[in-house]
């Protein structure tokens, strides 16, 4: 498939920033700026906000065209799971996307590949779109196992996900050593590993389905490097942490993605 036919997704990951009092102000700023951006129907722009700010963000972004997501989601719709938030709750609050398996969840909160898979299956069944994160740590990169590791994470995350559900799946390649460090993978390296992801998806679903899959790069993407990263054949968007907290920078990345 021609790259230009794939859906591009530019998603901000606010991480643990912007509470319900700060969110309306910042979201309104983003909405105002986005109103002036020349849109491309094939490009989705989203912000993934803290659970507690989803409702406030939904109200502030209404009618703006900016989509809304959360940063995690549980695998059951209700029950005795203290501290968790379900797919159905997120839909009720106005979220359309959920990030799953972010490396910070894996690193600090013990999330496993099996849990990532359960969350992905439940989120898709519950009508959410998922942004599933994969990526190697620096020691894994140094050991030369990036490609195998990323392929394995992908296969485990997508276990039981049907080809028909792939339209609700975005994969984010996020090398852990590049997250929040200001060190970006070179565009070639990012593009190469996103190619590994696409070939792995092809081994699971066939070439045509894999060609249609949206694969983001994430890890210190910013206004200065976005265009080069997004120009890579297998990079269809970005998951943006730090730079998504600065409206000007985030919108510069959004503009770079509009074709
Ligand atoms: P960063 O974060 O852009 O601050 O590196 C990306 C992410 O963790 O999704």
Structure explained in plain terms:
There is one protein chain. The chain is of the alpha/beta class. It has one domain (3-258): TIM Barrel, CATH 3.20.20. It has eleven helices and eight strands. Strand 3, helix 3 and strand 4 (97-100) form a beta-alpha-beta unit. Helix 1 runs parallel beside helix 2 and helix 7 (146-157) packs across helix 8. Bound molecules: 2-phosphoglycolic acid. The site of 2-phosphoglycolic acid (PGA) has 13 residues, from strand 8.
Shape: globular
Q: What is the CATH H-level superfamily?
A: Aldolase class I
CATH topology category name? TIM Barrel
Residues in helix, %: 40-55%
List keywords for this structure.
259 residues, alpha/beta, TIM Barrel, 8-stranded parallel barrel, globular
Topology readout:
Elements: E1 8-13, H1 23-35, E2 43-48, H2 54-61, E3 67-70, H3 87-93, E4 97-100, H4 103-108, H5 113-125, E5 129-134, H6 138-142, H7 146-157, E6 169-173, H8 187-205, H9 207-211, E7 214-218, H10 226-230, E8 237-240, H11 247-257
Parallel strand pairs: 1-2, 1-8, 2-3, 3-4, 4-5, 5-6, 6-7, 7-8
Helix pairs in contact: 1-2, 7-8
The site of 2-phosphoglycolic acid has 13 residues, from strand 8.
């Amino acid at each position: 498939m021609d790259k230009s036919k794939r859906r591009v997704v530019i998603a901000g990951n606010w991480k643990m920033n912007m509470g319900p009092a700060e969110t309306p102000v910042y979201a309104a700023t983003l909405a105002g700026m986005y109103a002036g951006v020349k849109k491309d129907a094939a490009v989705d722009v989203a912000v993934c906000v803290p659970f507690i700010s989803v409702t406030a963000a939904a109200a502030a972004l209404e009618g703006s065209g900016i989509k809304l997501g959360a940063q995690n989601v549980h695998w059951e719709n209700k029950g005795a799971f203290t501290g968790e938030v379900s797919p159905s709750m997120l839909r009720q609050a106005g979220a359309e996307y959920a990030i799953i398996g972010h490396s910070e969840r894996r690193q600090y909160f013990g999330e496993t590949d099996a849990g990532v898979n359960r969350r992905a299956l439940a989120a898709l069944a519950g009508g959410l779109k998922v942004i599933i994160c994969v990526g190697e740590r620096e020691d894994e990169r140094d050991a030369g196992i990036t490609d195998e590791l990323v392929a394995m994470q992908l296969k485990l995350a997508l276990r039981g996900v049907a080809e028909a559900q792939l339209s609700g799946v975005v994969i984010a390649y996020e090398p852990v050593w590049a997250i929040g460090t200001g060190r970006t993978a070179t565009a070639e390296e990012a593009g190469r590993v996103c190619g590994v992801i696409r070939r792995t998806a092809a081994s699971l679903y066939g070439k045509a389905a894999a060609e249609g899959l949206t694969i983001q790069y994430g890890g210190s993407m910013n206004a200065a490097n976005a265009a080069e990263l997004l120009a890579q054949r297998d990079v269809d968007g970005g998951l943006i942490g730090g730079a998504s907290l600065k409206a000007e920078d985030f919108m510069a990345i959004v503009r770079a993605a509009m074709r």
